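Below: protein 1.
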Amino acid sequence: MLSDRYLTEDASALGLARELYEVMKDYPILSPHGHIDPKVILENKAFANPVELLVTPDHYITRMLYSQGVSYESLGIPKKDGSSSAVDPKVVWRILASHWHLFRSTPSRIWVQEILYTLFDIDEVLSEENADKLYEVIDSKLKSPEFLPQALFNRFKIEVLATTDATADDLKTHKAISGLGLKGRVIPTFRPDDVSDPLRPDFLSSIEKLSAVSGVAITSFASLLEALRKQRVIFKATGATATDHGVFSAQTLIATGSETEALFKQVMQGSSDLAVVEKYRAVMLMEHARMSADDGLVMQLHPGSLRNYDKKIFDTYGPDRGFDIPVALTFTKELQPLLNEVGSSKNFKLVLYTLDEATYSRELAPIAGAYPSVRLGPPWWFLDSLNGMARWRDAVTETAGYYNTVGFIDDTRAFCSVPVRHDVARRFDAGYLAKEVMRHRISKSEAHELAAEVAYKLSKDFFNL
């Protein structure tokens, strides 16, 4: 593969882009927003085969195949009940290879080809003709000690890897990982969606689990908040520096004690009244912000997805199978109660992500450009691509600048895609900064300084890493 890949198409900026990338590429990886299962690191089991490594955990891959008529059953995707069809992984790999043309110009194509090149020394585009050969090359290397997860963790130069953990998680896995002697840290992230959205099927059972693990009898809204605070203390003591909120809307609401208790009673009784549900969600988001203002955990907010859109897929295969679909949304009015209360608090930090690019310059950049507590998360999910990064930088920089952003997040469940995602983002940013110099918007020395900031320092500072 070309050493200058993804830097810039502007020949006049290429030399400087190379210089900046040399600055950026050697920084260790900070991954403050990820979804790797920590048990993968702790158990340190060899990846069974190329399909388990590259296909099964990647819903970008499986959803594209499904869109062209490839069933999840034929891919051996595990079902909600834990079972799966007995499909030879070599057959699944051949299916991927025969459909690889579907991924042309997509970020999925970049991630996979980068993994093949940087980890397995494969400088070929996957095809039906070379599928079996490439499978054997990858499979053989996966059986070596160098490809065990803990060895890869050190090889990837990961300084901090944040996972996503349920409200009632006992964090035993993280505590065990801390004693492994890895070169970097694996830290939890507190994600209380399960007790914040009454429409989740696990809402009531999650509150029961929270009650059990916290030792708080949750019989009221006040006791729910008490249990959440206790868990946040445990998460923070185990290394967590952030919370994560995958909400449908950014709506926040300040309510009286009697109002919150009435809402809690209604949702605990199974109310399906959408007005009640939306108020409860908004009140909970406000309370999570208040708790972050108290304990300093960085609040990450990513609204705008209608999750588990396909009922049959969800009922059969569970969540996170490629059927979370973006919706239009707004932030300005929705966040006003929250920002009026804690937006200028010295202890409060908020990172905003979106799937609605129309909000970049209209709402998000002006909010981040005004509030000391707010930073913009980079393009996320369907937008974490070269084109998405370009649209984002162009839309937010003129209002929010660089220092009201937080660097890159990988947001991945596929462990081996962590380093390539960060590398591609660094290549893009090197090219972007070089072009800004060519456009006389920053100087060369400023570009070198910014290269270090966007590659590493912005994330390290804002996420308290």
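Below: protein 2.
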Amino acid sequence: MNAIGLFTMLRREAKRTLRVVVQTLIAPTVSAALYLFIFGTVIGTKIEDFAGVPYISFVFPGVLMLSIINASFASASSNLYFMRFTRGIEEILIAPFSYLEMLVGFVGSAVVRALMVSVLILLTGLAFGAVSLVNPVAFFLYVAAVAAIFAMLGIIVALWAEGFEQLQVLNTFVITPLTYLGGIFYSITFLPPLAAEITRANPFFYFADGIRSSMIGYSEANTAIGLIVIVGLLVGLAILVTTLFRKGWKIRA
């Protein structure tokens, strides 16, 4: 394992994040604060406690997940695409990295940014009185897993994209709709039976439910199914991205 090389990639992403701190850290924190104010403070005061917790605490895990998804996807996709655009990817290809280490480096860099964002949003949630952690270990694992999944999706999009505008295609037409339809602002008990079953077929529902269960101890999904979905996506995407790196798709002339 090229520990020095991996640490250098992680440090590089951390510095890149801090160089544009308004875009990478402050903007998602402000967005999360607005979500909490509108859905938690304004609307939440009109809704009775749900599952034994205030509505703002029920909503907060979904708001956090939304920010983690956006941060990890944007970090991985922009990082790799700019390296392709400037031919900086050639430095990675000639470095003593295995393809698995390349994957770990790019994904780990995106997870670092997502964790930085999540810490700021947790602090924001504390200010609103929305944060509780019944299982901190599970919370960290769920956050890291969700960030890694969307980092790998970001890598795939960065390899496929031929222009800057294409970097947002998956996020705009797939990720954002599935996120909002995954129960981040509502319980599936509020839905008609058919809509609830459709929601259970949405993998984003299991992402939000896992983070929510680790924070407030309330779960609406089958935990075993959720773990199968998350681990399956992690393994499947890791194999796919590693294979694309090995084949040199879009990264070798």
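Residues 32 and 49 are 21 Å apart (CA to CA).
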